[in-house]
């Protein structure tokens, strides 16, 4: 058994249905005004795994992950209907506070977006302070842990008061990951987290994703199929707002069951 093999690959397939998902998407539909962007998505996401969402431009990848933590509805005119069950909470239940959901399901965006006027330290501490944490020692600890977790601490530990915007693009993206981790999310959504980065910075983020899976569940959008193959345990292929095929990454890439998936994977359209 190679070290490259992931936990999901080693486990026998038969156990798959017995594992309670971390996130269960049921009959999820989403719109921008009258345009339907997601069509009846059903998908279970297993805890402590990385799932890649792939598919051609405009197929609904970003919309899908933004529906998971209720960011989609923040776009004027946007709406979602259906269920996203996080453990045993329906994210779309009327009694649920979307702010709590965003804390439990964090997000990292395509372009690194540190708060430009804030120091490295304050970028990571900002969310904690907003949540009323003022104790300096506690803040120091969480900031250090988050930066360590994001594999950035060694590079910035002597420069914590410098602006976040003084870092390289790859470092800024890891700072944004640290900022998300400081809130101790259970699920981390990543929307093409390496598309603005060079290959070395990208591979650092990919390594990081491997490590982060031990503590949380990752759902990432990527245009890069090699990246999906390298980092994701499971891959979902979408087309025109529909989930066409979803399974273990190895199966999706080596033995797709649907012709559309096969055509996309082999570069016949994109
Ligand atoms: N703010 C918006 N207003 C109106 N329509 C939108 C908006 N954002 C996305 N859409 C439309 O919704 C559909 C899904 O978009 P989405 O961004 O989820 O696709 P995607 O697969 O992530 O695309 P890409 O790979 O290009 O980022 C597309 O047809 C897109 O044009």
UniProtKB/TrEMBL annotation:
PROSITE patterns: ABC_TRANSPORTER_1, ABC_TRANSPORTER_2. Residues 23-265 form the ABC transporter domain. It comes from Nitrososphaera gargensis (strain Ga9.2). It is an enzyme of class 3 (hydrolase). Keywords: ATP-binding, Hydrolase, Nucleotide-binding, Transport. This is ABC phosphate uptake transporter, ATP-binding protein. NCBIfam families: 3a0107s01c2. Its EC number is 3.6.3.27. The keyword Transport applies. Gene3D superfamilies: P-loop containing nucleotide triphosphate hydrolases. One of its GO terms (cellular component) is membrane. The keyword Nuclease does not apply. One of its GO terms (biological process) is phosphate ion transmembrane transport. GO terms for molecular function: ATP binding; ATP hydrolysis activity; phosphate transmembrane transporter activity. CDD domains: ABC_PstB_phosphate_transporter. SMART domains: AAA.
């Amino acid at each position: 058994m190679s070290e490259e093999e992931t936990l999901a690959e080693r486990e026998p397939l038969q156990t798959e249905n017995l594992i309670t998902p971390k996130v269960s998407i049921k009959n999820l539909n989403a719109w921008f005004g009258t345009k339907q962007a997601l069509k009846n998505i059903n998908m279970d996401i297993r805890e402590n795994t990385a799932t890649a969402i792939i598919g051609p431009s405009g197929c609904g990848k970003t919309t899908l992950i933004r529906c998971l933590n209720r960011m989609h509805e923040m776009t004027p005119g946007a709406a979602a209907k259906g269920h996203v069950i996080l453990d045993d909470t329906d994210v779309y239940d009327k009694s649920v506070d979307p702010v709590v959901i965003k804390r439990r399901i964090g997000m990292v965006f395509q372009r690194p977006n540190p708060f430009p006027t804030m120091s490295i330290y304050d970028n990571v501490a900002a969310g904690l302070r907003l949540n009323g944490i003022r104790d300096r020692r506690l803040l120091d600890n969480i900031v250090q842990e988050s930066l360590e977790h994001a594999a950035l601490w060694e590079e910035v530990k002597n420069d914590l008061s410098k602006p976040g915007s003084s870092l390289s693009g790859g470092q800024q993206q890891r700072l944004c990951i640290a900022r998300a981790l400081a809130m101790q999310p259970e699920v981390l959504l990543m929307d093409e987290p390496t598309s603005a980065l060079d290959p070395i910075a990208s591979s650092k983020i990919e390594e990081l994703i491997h490590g982060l899976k031990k503590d949380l569940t990752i759902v990432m959008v990527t245009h890069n199929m090699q990246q999906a193959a390298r980092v994701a345990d499971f891959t979902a292929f979408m087309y025109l707002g529909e989930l066409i095929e979803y399974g273990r990454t190895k199966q999706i890439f080596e033995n797709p069951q649907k012709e559309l998936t096969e055509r996309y994977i082999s570069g016949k359209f994109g």
